[in-house]
Each structure stands twice: as structure tokens, then as C-alpha cells.
Amino acid sequence: MPRYYTPHEVRAHCFEDDAYVSINGKVLDITPLIQMYQGTRYASLLQPLILAAGTDMTHLLDKKTMDFKTCIDPETGFRTYAQPFGRFAHTPTVLPDSSIDLSYEVPWWQDERYVIGQLTRKTRKIRIVNTLNGHEHTLEVCSEETLREIVMTRYLSHNAHALSYTWRRLDSEPRDLDMDKTLDENGVLDESEEFESLGLNADYYIPALHLYYDDDLTEA
């Protein structure tokens, strides 16, 4: 199952030595690509990618071809990729050029080797309350994630024994939550859009999940 990422997580990887981009719902780690070209005669093709690190590049793609958009080069009249920040790796030159890189079989934006996960369709916030010690953490999560995935990718750093707890929702009908279901599937609905439609802040109400320790001696 793919890992889901929030836009905030993608934006955090905006460096030359740590570069993520999102394209058409996929998250790509292009750090290896940048490292491969550094110190070579193609190094100049990296600057547009470094500038794009941490951003969503979907707007540069043609929805029909799922390839980068093209335009007519004003100097030659030839069709070429639209590259607002300059020519980048794996794009051809307008005119024949024997110095271009032909070592790749698939351009990086179509190469599944760089795909590390999916960009979430919707983020939401939850509060996790540990009833054993009273600690509370507010997390931004992906709507597609199961509770188990939320624990493993987002909450375990706050509580190494998180899976030793029973997770409960204390609403009008208190109940244990299924760790292999999403928040919506567990009946913990996201009401942020409804709040916004009423002129309220999306974070006006953040649902809480309560953790009850099972003492099953699970090791961290």
C-alpha cells in the first residue's frame, strides 16, 4: 500500500540534497536524479528542478497526454516543452545537439523509480489524547490513511507504545476504533468544509481520539 503525503510534507523537502515534487497526485523523490547529474556537464539542467523542489508541478502537465505541456519556440518555430524556469533534465533541445543526455529510457517524471507515494486528496486534523498521562497531540493526517498508518508514520515518534493502547472515540456512542480503517470509515467525520461554509475556521472543531493503555508489555 502506498504512503500518502500531505502538501506540507512535500514542501518540507525543498533542498538540493533533499528534493520532493508532486505531479498528478504522485510524490517523487528526485534527490537521486539531482545527485546523479551534479558535477557533470549536464549540471546546469538541475537548477529548474532545485527551484521546483517542494512544490506541485501538476500545472505544467497536459491533462490529455500526461506529459509536460508544449509550446512553439519563438526563435525556431519548432514545438518544444514549455519550461518557464529553463531547460531541465530529460527534455530535448529545440535543435539537434550531440551533447544531450541520452542515457535514460524513461524521463524522470514518468519513471516509477522516483515515485515514493501518493499526494493526499484531502488533509484533516485530529487530536490524540493519551488518558494515561494526559498528553495531547494535534496531527495533520491524510484522509486516505488508516489509523494504523497514522500511528506508524505520524504518531509513533510521540508515543513508541502507541499500538499498546485501545483507541476510542468518545462521542454520543463511545466505541473502540478499528485500526485498519480510515477515520471516515470509523465514523470520525471531517466537518471542516461545513465549518468553512458557515464562515467558521476549518479548525473550529478538531475531533479527539482517546487512548487507553492495555498494558500488554509491547516493546517499543
Automatic annotation (TrEMBL):
Q: Does the keyword Metal-binding apply?
A: yes
What main location does UniProt list? cytoplasm
Q: Which Gene3D superfamilies match?
A: Cytochrome b5-like heme/steroid binding domain
Q: Which GO terms describe its molecular function?
A: metal ion binding
Q: Which InterPro entries match?
A: Cyt_B5-like_heme/steroid-bd (IPR001199), Cyt_B5-like_heme/steroid_sf (IPR036400), Cytochrome_b5_domain (IPR052320)
Cellular-component GO terms for this entry: axoneme
Provide the protein's localization.
Answer: Cytoplasm, Cytoskeleton, Cilium axoneme
Query: Which is one Pfam family of this protein?
Result: Cyt-b5
Chain ranges of the Cytochrome b5 heme-binding domain: 2-120
Q: Which UniProt keywords apply?
A: Cell projection, Cytoplasm, Cytoskeleton, Heme, Iron, Metal-binding
Q: Which PANTHER family match?
A: CYTOCHROME B5 DOMAIN-CONTAINING PROTEIN 1 (PTHR21281)
Q: What does this protein do?
A: Radial spoke stalk protein that binds heme under oxidizing conditions. Required for the coordinated beating of multiple cilia maybe by functioning in a redox signaling pathway.
Protein name in the entry: Cytochrome b5 domain-containing protein 1
Species annotation: Trypanosoma equiperdum
